[in-house]
């Protein structure tokens, strides 16, 4: 479980996060949602240590992360898998080398064992046989899936996903969403997805934390989100005509 | 480089020299960088050094108008100029352009495409993984390239001088072998070592802290070459002052 308590983060005079707290449980898909500039990516980066919050704490199963030194943080990070918005694959490496990279760095496995793991991860994301391709030869959806394969290569306890559906067509988005949900339930990972995609919210949002102007405005599940009377949340979730029409049917 | 940048540069170097996660992977990266920095630059350095040596001989001969000065001095001046100044400095400045811009743009592109963040999240010390192999390759290969440059520059002087008739082969050879002080080689290699460090670490710093997109990566690459060249010239003066 990951618990954040009273997180504050500013960039100069711009206060981006204003006291965010929340609990993200394992085995369920946790979503952080909000409009552009609401602070969701900043919150994610504070949680994984790419930003340092001015105040507040981040606990990984009771282990306080923000006050750890470099070596202690590395130990936690070995338990983290992350899919970046742009996939962040190493473009000078093949798909196989990308997925094998963390195994090369942190395990003493033989090449055969590592290759088996790579092939298993590729099979898991339905990309078997694509080992020799370079990231430049992959479509957007394939890059995301390779990113997921790399993220799960080390059997992470915590999985972070930043905007998994950006730039993808609706059908591919659903494939990615379902894959994230399956992996979360199968490996009981604590998964946190940052998104503003309403299909994801309705499809896989077991726990949703809604941010607005740097504050936590609401938390609940995708079943509860349609029945709130919080104006800001309704303006965000039901911004499109389609979603408004869908709400009337709930 | 102002004081804030200098402070960040020092902090980055501190992170660069942390203990590597896995030595075998770093060794592979070091050899790859040695190939890129060293072997990949041999052709360029060879052409430049040979021509500079040849032109130097012609210019020294042109300026020696007095019959009282023996022509063997052409070889001596060419040798000392090549070893002490031209080979280390010209090699370093050429490499700052070729290698520095490549290092800065490679690391800068990795920064803006979140590849460095990905390394961090995996628990890898990204400054060490990305920069240490380049720095180690730089401080080993640049001195070797400078030695090559010295040889070719002096050889180029021989070719230029004898082909043009500015100096005879015997006079030139006598000039380069008379009163040779081996300490000049030591000074040149110290310079090459320092320049190798600058050529790799300064562009790496510029690339590592890029923010933005393609335009900013290009700007960082230009800045890396400019700052490297100025730092090379400043360090050239300091090392010369200290060692001679």
TrEMBL record, chain B:
The name on file for this protein is Phospholipid/cholesterol/gamma-HCH transport system permease protein
Keyword hit for Cytoplasm = no
Q: Which GO terms describe its molecular function?
A: phospholipid transporter activity
Q: Does the keyword Transmembrane helix apply?
A: yes
Gene Ontology, cellular component aspect: ATP-binding cassette (ABC) transporter complex
Organism name:
Pedobacter steynii
Q: Which UniProt keywords apply?
A: Membrane, Transmembrane, Transmembrane helix
Which domain of life does the protein's organism represent? Bacteria
**What residue ranges are annotated as transmembrane?**
36-62, 135-159, 180-200, 220-239
Q: Which InterPro entries match?
A: Permease_MalE
Coiled-coil stretches are none
């Amino acid at each position: 479980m990951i618990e954040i308590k009273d997180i504050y983060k500013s960039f100069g005079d711009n206060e981006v996060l204003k006291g965010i707290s929340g609990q993200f449980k394992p085995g369920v898909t946790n979503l952080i949602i909000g409009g552009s500039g609401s602070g969701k990516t900043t919150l994610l980066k504070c949680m994984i240590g790419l930003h340092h919050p001015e105040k507040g704490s981040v606990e990984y199963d009771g282990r306080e992360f923000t006050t750890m030194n470099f070596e202690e943080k590395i130990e936690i990070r070995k338990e983290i898998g992350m899919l970046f918005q742009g996939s962040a694959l190493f473009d000078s490496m093949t798909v196989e080398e990308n997925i094998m990279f963390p195994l090369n760095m942190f395990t003493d496995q033989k090449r055969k064992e590592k290759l088996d793991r790579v092939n298993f991860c590729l099979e898991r994301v339905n990309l078997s046989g694509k080992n020799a391709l370079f990231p430049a030869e992959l479509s957007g959806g394939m890059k995301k899936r390779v990113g997921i394969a790399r993220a799960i290569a080390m059997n992470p306890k915590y999985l972070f996903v930043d905007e998994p559906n950006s730039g993808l067509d609706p059908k591919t988005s659903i494939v990615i969403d379902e894959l994230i949900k399956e992996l979360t339930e199968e490996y009981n990972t604590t998964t946190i997805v940052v998104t503003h995609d309403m299909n994801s919210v309705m499809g896989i949002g077991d726990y949703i934390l809604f941010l607005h102007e740097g504050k936590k405005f609401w938390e609940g599940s995708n079943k509860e989100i349609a029945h709130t009377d919080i104006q800001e949340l309704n303006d965000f979730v039901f911004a499109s005509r389609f979603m408004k029409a869908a709400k009337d049917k709930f | 480089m102002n004081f804030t940048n200098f402070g960040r540069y020092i902090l980055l170097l501190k992170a660069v020299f942390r203990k590597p996660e896995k030595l075998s992977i770093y060794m592979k990266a070091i050899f790859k960088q040695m190939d890129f920095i060293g072997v990949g630059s041999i052709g360029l350095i060879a052409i430049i050094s040979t021509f500079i040596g040849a032109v130097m001989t012609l210019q020294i001969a042109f300026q020696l108008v007095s019959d009282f000065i023996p022509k063997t001095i052409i070889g001596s001046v060419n040798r000392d100029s090549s070893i002490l100044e031209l080979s280390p400095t010209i090699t370093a400045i050429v490499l700052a352009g070729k290698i520095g811009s490549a290092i800065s743009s490679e690391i800068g592109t990795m920064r803006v495409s979140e590849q460095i963040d990905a390394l961090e999240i995996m628990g890898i010390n990204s400054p060490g993984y990305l920069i240490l192999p380049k720095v180690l390759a730089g401080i080993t290969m640049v001195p070797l390239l400078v030695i090559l440059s010295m040889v070719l520059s002096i050889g180029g002087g021989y070719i230029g001088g004898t082909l043009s008739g500015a100096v005879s082969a015997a006079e030139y050879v006598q000039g380069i072998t008379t009163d040779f002080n081996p300490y000049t080689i030591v000074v040149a290699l110290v310079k090459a070592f320092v320049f190798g460090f600058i050529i790799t670490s300064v562009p790496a710093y510029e690339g590592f802290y890029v923010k933005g997109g393609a335009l900013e990566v290009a700007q960082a690459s230009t800045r890396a070459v400019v700052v490297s060249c100025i730092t090379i010239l400043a360090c050239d003066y300091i090392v010369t002052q200290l060692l001679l």
